[in-house]
Amino acid sequence: MNHIKLIKSEQDHEQALARLMALMEMDPEPNSIESDEIDVLAVLIEKYEEEAFPIDMPNPIEAIKFRMDQQGLTNKDLVAYIGSAPKVSEVLNGKRNLSLNMIRRLSEGLGISADVLIRSPEQKNACESEIDWYAFPLSEMRKRGYFEGFNGSLLELKEYAAEQITAFLSSVSSGFNLKPALLRSSAHLRSNDKEVDPYALWAWQVRVLQKANEEKLPANYKQGTVNLEWMQKLVSLSWSAQGASLAVEFLNKHGIHLITEQHLPKTYLDGAVCVKSDGNPVIALTLRHDRLDSFWFSLMHELAHLALHLDGNETWYLDDLDALGGSEVEQEADALAQEALIPSDLWKKKCLIDAESVRVLSEELEISPCIVAGRARHETGNHSMFGSLFRDKVRQHF
Q: Where does this protein have coiled-coil stretches (predicted)?
């Protein structure tokens, strides 16, 4: 057997081909030295050619047209796979991208490999995923502009749901890690006995992270910043008519995002808190109840989770504050929130029987009277207390 070496250049390739041709003309006996040399050379030549002369995957449109020619199909025959005559024309003329649904139908119906038809990373990821794309609240997400750059109809969105949702989830680093299967173990969800829509919750969380990523904070969060004294300092801003707006600035200066995002149907959320991968906390409020006292309690409750329970990981606390009781963790957060708003020793001494007593206590604490009245209404269960007084709205500040 001649000396055989790896093929590293075009010259090596030509010499190997010449030697292979010479050996094949000899027509050697099986298992002979020459026959074994043929086998080795064939492997080396094939390996070199695969690396030096890679064969490009055919263009998806070319692949479809080739199969049409093979099977004698017309544009009309593709309607069953692509959806309508205009869509068939647009796809074949390169004016419309194939959706994952179209790819699956073409692959199954015409026998074209999905690998040939898939071109974008989003489609490849979506194809490999077992996510139920239609379980997301597509209509509401479209209405709120969750899909950047998409201006199509709801019908169009459903056709391209896999691609649009994949792009949406991929827009934040932990987007896919929030999937419903992980919610029960990686997040703490406080809610009533109502059935929560996990896909709506997932979409809301991603949207919150998108908004947080768009913000540039003036400082980074320092572990241990949030404690009772710090929370009380924040609550004192409620004494101002612009207290809610001032709270945003205060939190941002301490490396904390405050995001407002309306809850999606069947999520029943008031607020949530997590820590982003960069170490900065995100507090998200839905302002589901458009009341100043609800804003301040929700904010304090999420801050209490940050002070007591978040350890720097990307765990979420998701809260429906209408829910009664709750776990020990939630009761701890409630207690710290209440203490930050109105010290318990002072609260126990007061008897709020009229509007004047509310004003006196709020002036003593230098906090919004809405916080005082809200606490009284909540603890007595009498939500008509003080009539129309102390019911300031909060959404106008955001």
A: none
Asked if 43 and 97 sit in the same domain, the reply is: no
28, 111: one domain: no
Written as six digits, the tokens of 271 are: 């607020």
Residue 201 lies in a domain: no
User: Residue 51 has which token pair?
Assistant: 């690396």
pLDDT at 185 over 90: no
Identify the CA nearest to 36 among candidates 53, 45, 54, 23.
Answer: 23
- Shared domain for 74 and 95, answered yes or no, is yes
* DSSP per position, 49-114: HHHHSPPPPPPHHHHHHHHHHHHT--GGGGHHHHSSHHHHHHHHTTSSPPPHHHHHHHHHHH---H
Residue 296 forms part of a structural domain:
yes
C-beta of residue 224 within 8 angstroms of C-beta of residue 190: no
Cβ atoms of residues 337 and 209 within 8 Å: no
| Helix, strand, coil % over all residues of the chain, rounded to 5 | 55, 5, 35
Can you give the residue range of the structural domain that contains 297? 218-397
Total domain count, the chain: 3
Under 8 Å between Cβ of 251 and 284: no
- pLDDT tier, 313 (very low <50, low <70, confident <90, very high otherwise): low
pLDDT at 180: 60
